[in-house]
Design a protein that fits this description.
Layout lengths: L2 H7 L3 H18 L3 H12 L4 H7 L6 H41 L17 H14 L4 E2 L5 E3 H4 L19 E2 L8 E3 L5 H9 L4 E10 L11 E11 L4 H16 L5 E8 L2 E11 L2 E11 L1 H7 L7 E8 H9 L12 H4 L4
Parallel strand pairs: 1-5
Antiparallel strand pairs: 2-4, 3-4, 5-6, 6-10, 7-8, 8-9, 9-10
Helix pairs in contact: 1-4, 2-5, 3-5, 6-11
Length: 345
């Protein structure tokens, strides 16, 4: 006879079930994992356990004994099931506590400071240039990167035959049936004209921004670069004011002992015109172009050239960054290599 049959046919059924309950209870209490408990549950009250076999054998028991034996089996199964559930709750709690201990953060350890970003060198230099002029009363204005020929050239007294207006120098856009050409601005000067059209003098503005020209990328040229241009228009402004303003800028940007000199030059929108050179890195370097605003420009914006005078200047931000930081190749400034960029954090 099988073990279930032995259990049911025992002369002391109560003791046998109690013995089973005690043995199983000890195993349940000593289970150290949920997996081990699942094995005990299967062997004790599962489909192939002694309890399950005993229930199947109830059909062969006399009716007068069946109820008593069934009740004993059910009580034993209920007791074992309750013990298993209690132990399962305990083991789950132990697992959760273990996970919490493993994931716990030691609040006494120093914090991890994330690597912070920094402005690109060109942006940083552009902001510094603008800040110097803002500190002496200039306002900052910006404008569109796509401009018409009128604002890019005509209003700045640049004649139709000037080489800068050719497609070999300027990047033109296919902008539908516009009566005049539309280009990617070759300088930020158009905003000087736009501002004067809407504002009466006095005018003191700087115009930072990105500009475009049809240049090949090499150590000193790029088809995309950055400029800061400035304009001052008031009564009785002289070339001496221009020189003093730009000399002040150079000394603020490069150092108080920086020497500058002005050499004659030519620009259609200024007259007279000059280049400002500064002594840096052991040599004289051209920094920017400048000059007194040409009266023809005033006529385009509705200013009376008999009542106002002024000066304008423009500088390449990329070149200023190269001179200041000793960069020998313009392409380094556009290199996405983090090893290059981190040198200027």
């Amino acid at each position: 006879m099988n073990r279930a049959g032995n259990l049911i046919g025992s002369t002391d059924l109560h003791d046998s079930l109690e013995n089973l309950r005690n043995r199983a209870a000890k195993r349940i209490d000593s289970a150290e994992s949920l997996e081990e408990l699942a094995v005990i549950e299967s062997e004790t009250i599962g489909k192939k356990s002694l309890i399950a076999n005993a229930r199947r054998e109830l059909r062969g028991i006399a009716p007068e004994k069946r109820r008593e034996i069934g009740q004993l089996i059910n009580e034993t199964a209920k007791s074992l099931s309750g013990g298993i559930e209690i132990r399962r709750v305990v083991l789950r709690s132990m697992v959760e506590e273990s996970r919490l201990r493993e994931d716990a953060a030691d609040m006494t350890l120093p914090g991890r400071i994330p690597l912070r970003g920094a402005p690109h060198l060109i942006r940083e230099v552009m902001n510094e240039i603008v800040d110097i002029f803002v500190s002496i009363g200039y306002s900052v204005i910006t404008g569109p990167e796509a401009e018409t020929d009128y604002y890019s050239f005509t209003a700045l007294n640049i004649p139709p035959t000037h080489p800068a207006r050719l497609s070999t120098d300027t990047l033109y856009l296919d902008y539908g049936d516009t009566p005049e050409g539309v280009n990617l601005r070759p300088h930020t000067s158009p905003m000087q004209v736009r501002h004067m059209e809407k504002h009466d003098p006095p005018v003191y503005v700087v115009v930072p921004g990105r500009v475009f020209r049809r240049d090949a990328l090499d150590p000193t040229h790029s088809p995309v670069f950055h400029q800061v241009e400035g304009l001052a228009v008031d009564t009785d402004i002289t070339f001496g004011d221009l020189k003093g303003t730009l000399a002040y800028f150079a000394q603020e940007f490069f150092g108080a002992k920086t020497r500058v000199k002005f050499l004659p030059s030519y620009f259609p929108f200024t007259e007279p015109s000059a280049e400002m050179h500064a002594y840096a890195n052991g040599q004289w370097l051209e920094l920017l172009g400048c000059g007194m605003v040409n009266p023809a420009v005033y006529e385009h914006v509705g200013y009376d050239p008999e009542k106002v005078t002024g000066f304008a200047f423009g500088m390449g931000v990329d070149r200023m960054a190269m001179v200041r930081h000793g960069v020998t190749d313009l392409r380094h400034l556009f290199d996405p290599d983090i090893r290059t960029l981190e040198q200027f954090r």
